[in-house]
Design a protein that fits this description.
Elements: H1 13-33, H2 43-50, H3 54-61, H4 64-88, H5 94-110, H6 113-119, H7 136-153, H8 159-178, H9 184-203
């Protein structure tokens, strides 16, 4: 009897090709955004920088706003990765996990050149609304990811309370990164104190 293959399944070619295309387009947009505001960048600029036609870009995303929303979420993936790691490093202390998560996000995002470009927007840059006034898709996506991490770390927590804690943290993070009032450490400490009683109730610690 032939031995069964243990090689990992490969993504279908079409799926892998689309993933590569999107990564290439997002990378091109990030390079452009490190130099100038979103309002000064056209879809043709992004397509040219990525080495594809403008039609290819529109076929993948539909509109400039849809591309911007997808780009914001794509960039957010990098920040959520480090936030999740910070939470998992403090599973023995829920208060510390919340403080570390917020501190890590504010510090990492604040050091990012594209985020700094977005935050320096005077209202004409065009991309900041995708994390503020038009930011519901980002809030829902980030809340779902963070809620999953909380439920995995504290399985005794009721789902609805884990989701409420996750959404509160996401909304606080967006608010603090767009209108900072103190250092990331001080902000995280204040949020940790504010949310302390609910953390105890929600996570049963």
């Amino acid at each position: 009897m032939a031995a069964m293959s243990t090689a990992p399944e490969r993504a279908p070619y079409a799926v892998a090709a689309r993933r590569l295309l999107r990564e290439t387009l997002f990378g091109a947009a990030r390079d452009e955004l490190e130099e100038r505001a979103w309002s000064e960048i056209t879809m043709a600029d992004i397509a040219a920088a990525a080495g594809v036609s403008r039609q290819t870009l529109y076929k993948e995303f539909g509109s400039r706003d849809e591309f911007a929303q997808a780009f914001v979420i794509h960039e957010g993936e990098r920040f959520l990765d480090v936030v999740e790691e910070a939470v998992r490093e403090h599973l023995d202390d829920a208060h510390a996990a919340v403080g570390a998560a917020l501190d890590t996000f504010l510090r990492t995002a604040g050091e990012d050149p594209v985020v700094r470009m977005m935050l320096s927007d005077d209202g004409t840059g065009g991309m900041l609304p995708f994390v503020t006034t038009q930011g519901m898709p980002v809030v829902l996506w980030a809340t779902a990811r963070l809620s999953t991490v909380i439920q995995e770390g504290w399985p005794q927590a009721p789902v609805e309370k884990a989701q409420l804690l996750a959404e509160s943290l996401v909304r606080l993070a967006i608010s603090y990164i767009t209108v900072p009032t103190a250092s990331s450490e001080a902000t995280a400490a204040a949020a940790r104190e504010l949310l302390g009683p609910f953390i105890d109730e929600a996570l049963g610690v």
